[in-house]
Design brief:
The protein contains ten helices and 18 strands. The protein is an alpha+beta fold. Strands 1-16-15-6-7-5-10-9-2-3 form a ten-stranded mixed sheet, sandwiched between helices. Strand 13 and strand 14 form a beta hairpin. Helix 3 crosses helix 6 and helix 3 packs across helix 8. The longest helix has 21 residues. The protein is globular and about 65 Å long. Bound molecules: adenosine-3'-5'-diphosphate and magnesium ion (2 copies). The site of adenosine-3'-5'-diphosphate has 7 residues, from helix 5 and strand 12. The site of one magnesium ion (MG) has 2 residues, from loops.
Length: 388
């Protein structure tokens, strides 16, 4: 009898381990057709003020203006108001979702399967081609809805905040390009605000300020709500995604190797934009010292065709198949047993290896909550609202 008990206990332990730890095979090729990806519908937009407060208006919306020739991206570097890197919390997106639900937005009538920032979804979908950077997610499933949050450890945030001067400057180049390419009112060229500002400078960079759009879309069977920053619009904001523009900088292309590197990078540009329904990407090609030598517009949907058939080609079908499988995997793995929806799962992706999922223990959950008013990583007000 004792032996039998012991055996069943061991069995129980190992089966609970199996239930708590599971791996998803990493795809090596794509076959068949792409799961459908529905055209994203804009639900609502919001802004972050210079104090990084979320407001439900379009005060941070910017309009596209062509940048001046040979724009210098190091301009006003010393005046950059830099928002410190922090945990990328899902709170702002949940406030927007909650508001859209209050307003009974028709696109939400059919329900929601998963919620996350665009950055998280981009990481998931580009994983089949990611060779260097792994990532960690925190995942909860409440009332059948998956919530996805990037997991950043204290160490990762320290690293991001203590960039080497060279890296910090290069990051600034991207924001300076945004300044030259945007204006706060439509069809107006930028006039210098301070003595010493070059022609076309759109104002000093404050990375607290952001304009975000929240969209609803569907990948395979999973209805998604995705939020993300939109750099600017062309002409006017229509309430839809059709005038959205993504701005990017990249080093000038001087040879076949540069070209291949750029075309590999296009996957991230493409996916990041595609997920929010952004139809146009404008790339500023720059020198190592931050001078823009040319700009080139790309139509998002045409990008996959540009790389097709090349040695370094990527295939979005493989990304969508993987993303669809990944989300279905999460749905089956994170289903709460005994109605305990407070559970938090840690999903880790390692290049060349694949995905692994574990249930966080108390210590892990404490780290995720970080002493704030949260249930797992969801703010308590939201948890109460969805009746978790
Ligand atoms: P570039 O993309 O032109 O380099 P986004 O392009 O997503 O709108 O982001 C604007 C800028 O923020 C980027 O400009 C880059 O400078 C910086 N940035 C965004 N994501 C980053 C990352 N993961 N690492 C470093 N810098 C990043
Ligand atoms: Mg941006
Ligand atoms: Mg950009």
């Amino acid at each position: 009898k004792r032996n039998a008990d012991h055996d069943s206990e061991v069995e129980q332990q190992s089966s609970s381990k199996r239930a708590r730890r599971c791996a998803l095979e990493y795809p090596t090729s794509s076959s068949g057709s792409s799961p459908p990806f529905q055209q994203p519908t804009a639900l609502l937009s919001f802004s972050y003020t210079p104090a990084h407060e979320l407001v439900f208006d379009d005060s941070a919306l910017r309009y596209y203006v062509p940048p001046p020739a040979r724009a210098k991206l190091s301009h006003a570097y010393d005046r950059w108001i830099r928002r410190p890197e922090e945990r990328s919390r899902i709170d702002g997106l949940l406030r927007a979702l909650s508001r859209a639900q209050d307003q009974k937005h028709p696109s939400l009538a059919s329900g929601v399967g998963a919620v996350g920032w665009r950055g998280v979804l981009t990481r998931i979908l580009t994983a089949p081609y990611e060779e260097r950077e792994g990532w960690d997610l925190n995942v909860m499933c409440v009332q059948g809805v998956l919530y996805l949050e990037e997991h950043r450890s204290e160490e990762m945030m320290r690293e991001k905040n203590d960039l080497a001067p060279r890296q910090r400057l290069q990051t600034y180049y991207g924001y300076a390009f945004e300044s030259y390419c945007t204006s706060d009112s439509p069809n107006r060229t930028n006039v210098p605000q301070r003595p010493g500002d070059p022609p076309g400078w759109g104002g000093d960079v404050d990375t607290n300020v952001q304009w975000c759009s929240v969209v609803r879309t569907k990948l395979g069977d999973t209805r998604l709500v995705i939020g993300g920053e939109v750099d600017c619009v062309r002409g006017k904001f229509t309430g839809k995604t059709d005038t959205f523009i993504e701005l990017k900088t990249s080093m000038t292309i001087r040879g076949a190797q540069d070209e291949a590197r750029f075309e590999k990078k296009l996957l991230k540009f493409y996916m990041q934009s595609f997920l929010l329904g952004v139809p146009e990407i404008i790339v500023g090609f720059r020198t190592p010292s931050g001078e823009v030598v040319s700009t080139q517009p790309f139509k998002t949907v045409e990008i996959p065709r540009m790389v097709r058939g090349k040695p370094h080609a990527w295939d979005p079908t493989r990304c969508f198949q993987w993303g669809d499988a990944f989300l279905r995997f999460l749905r089956t793995q994170c289903r709460p047993e005994n109605d305990d929806e407070t559970r938090v799962w840690r999903v880790t992706f390692r290049p060349q290896i694949g995905v692994d999922i574990t249930l966080l223990d108390r210590e892990g959950v404490d780290e995720v909550e970080a002493g704030e008013e949260r249930v797992g990583f969801l703010p308590t007000w939201y948890w109460d609202e969805v009746g978790g």
